[in-house]
């Protein structure tokens, strides 16, 4: 992958986004959809259908089992072919409902009705969003109970990240540019739902920054919430939740902290579009937008797809001009995305990009040459080589004393390591193990 500049606290990549189509491509319908009952931080729901059952578009097919699961709806009309365990790209094993497309779409074309959401209470709005299957489009995906305060409670700060997270991810920028009106209606509904004391929007610092800022101030003037616009830093991993919170008010969170429990609601335009569709059409979340890019894709494009579309169907769409079959596929961007050889795994909220790169042979790890590249780029001012040494010599406590708990698992240290040491994966494993024992 090409790097333009290494800088203190991050890495700047060449501008992949300029290679994207300006328009959103609505893809053809997938032949099957794969719908795990749980994914990301969303706990499994209970299936309401059985193998062989016919389902309609928008039909409830699994109901929540607890607060951290969400209802699941069929994005297409079809027949349930199977309900079986699959392995998701993050390694999680989940039962999934697999639906084969058949039958017809009988949804009447509806115009948006925005009169009703203005008159319902914040608590009712919260419950409506939950009941229609809203999940936050972060990685990993979050159920409402993990990214919003409890129904009727007020948030401290609502943060909107209107810029992309990784190279080859253009989804949030395209939504901001092409679907601004819908996004702002979704934002107003979320302001009404979470009643924040402060609203902060992070915008790309491009030529339109001033115009976009003025437009947002004009649109949000009536909402009664002090609003700030902040320029996004143009290097990776400035879009991470913890980095945004630190930039907003100086609070430094550590591993295991849940922003919503501390009063922060963080969302992206893609989540706001789901909020808009729920309140404007009173329908569940059935579609999503995803960037498909990478050096094996001839025409990187943001695609509008049915939720649960398998990646093998998506990357073979002719408009994307796949250049070779010998590829590495990442669910997410190439820095923190998950890779898997099973291309039947679906695209779901939480995955804003599919990155398809020509396959490369990974170099074998060697010994640390003390070049300090890893500490130069670490956005959390950590000394990755020191943390790695501590963990490898089973001195995990010392690693925590040296700041391991503040690692955001961004993968930059591993990315720049000249000895190809698996720094970030080792940190993630150590953090996970300690979290499980607490
Ligand atoms: S993975 Fe952790 S240690 Fe490595 S650069 Fe990112 S924050 Fe720093
Ligand atoms: S980048 Fe790799 S080789 Fe260089 S100091 Fe860090 S761990 Fe050692």
UniProtKB/TrEMBL annotation:
Positions of the 4Fe-4S ferredoxin-type domain: 358-388
Keyword Metal-binding found: yes
This protein's record includes keyword Acetylation: no
InterPro entries (UniProt xref): 4Fe4S_Fe-S-bd, 4Fe4S_Fe_S_CS, Ion_transpt_RnfC/RsxC, Nuo51_FMN-bd_sf, RnfC_N
Alphabetized Pfam families for the sequence: RnfC_N
Alphabetic keyword roster: Iron, Iron-sulfur, Metal-binding
Xref: SUPFAM superfamilies: alpha-helical ferredoxin (SSF46548), Nqo1 FMN-binding domain-like (SSF142019)
Record-given protein name: 4Fe-4S ferredoxin-type domain-containing protein
Lineage, opening ranks: Bacteria, Pseudomonadati, Spirochaetota, Spirochaetia, Winmispirales
């Amino acid at each position: 992958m090409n790097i333009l500049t290494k800088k203190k606290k991050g890495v700047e990549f060449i501008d992949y986004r300029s290679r994207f189509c300006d328009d959103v491509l609505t893809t053809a319908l997938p032949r099957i959809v794969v719908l795990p009952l749980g994914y990301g931080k969303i706990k499994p729901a209970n299936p309401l259908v059985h193998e062989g059952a016919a389902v309609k578009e928008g039909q409830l097919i699994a109901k929540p089992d607890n607060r951290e699961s969400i209802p699941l709806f069929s994005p297409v009309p079809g027949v349930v072919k199977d309900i079986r365990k699959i392995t998701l790209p993050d390694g999680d094993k989940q039962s999934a409902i697999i639906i084969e497309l058949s039958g017809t779409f009988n949804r009447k074309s509806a115009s948006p009705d925005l009169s009703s959401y203005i008159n319902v209470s914040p608590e009712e709005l919260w419950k409506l969003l939950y009941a229609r299957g809203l999940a936050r489009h972060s990685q990993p995906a979050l159920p409402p109970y993990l990214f919003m305060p409890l129904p009727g409670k007020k948030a401290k700060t609502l943060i909107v990240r209107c810029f992309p997270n990784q190279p080859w991810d253009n989804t949030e920028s395209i939504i901001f540019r092409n679907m601004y009106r819908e996004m702002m209606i979704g934002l107003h509904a979320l302001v009404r739902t979470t009643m924040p004391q402060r609203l902060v929007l992070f915008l790309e610092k491009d030529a339109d920054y001033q115009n976009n800022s003025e437009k947002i101030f004009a649109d949000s003037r009536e909402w009664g919430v002090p609003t700030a616009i902040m320029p996004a830093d143009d290097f990776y991993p400035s879009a991470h939740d913890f980095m945004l919170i630190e930039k907003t008010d100086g609070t430094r969170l550590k591993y295991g902290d849940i922003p919503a429990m501390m009063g922060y609601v963080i969302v992206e335009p893609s989540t706001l579009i789901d909020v808009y569709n729920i309140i404007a059409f009173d329908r569940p979340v059935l579609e999503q937008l995803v960037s498909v890019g990478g050096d094996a894709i001839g025409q990187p494009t943001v695609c509008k797809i049915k939720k649960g579309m398998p990646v093998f169907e998506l990357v073979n769409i002719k408009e994307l001009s796949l250049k070779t079959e010998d590829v590495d596929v990442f669910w997410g961007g190439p820095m923190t995305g998950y890779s898997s050889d099973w291309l039947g795994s679906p695209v779901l909220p939480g995955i804003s990009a599919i990155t398809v790169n020509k396959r490369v042979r990974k170099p074998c790890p060697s010994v640390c040459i003390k070049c300090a590249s890893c500490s130069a780029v670490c956005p959390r001012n950590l000394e990755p080589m020191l943390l790695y040494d501590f963990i490898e010599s089973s001195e995990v406590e010392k690693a925590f004393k040296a700041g391991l708990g503040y690692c955001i698992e961004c993968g930059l240290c591993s990315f720049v390591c000249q000895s190809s040491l698996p720094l970030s994966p080792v940190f993630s494993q150590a953090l996970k193990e300690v979290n499980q024992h607490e």
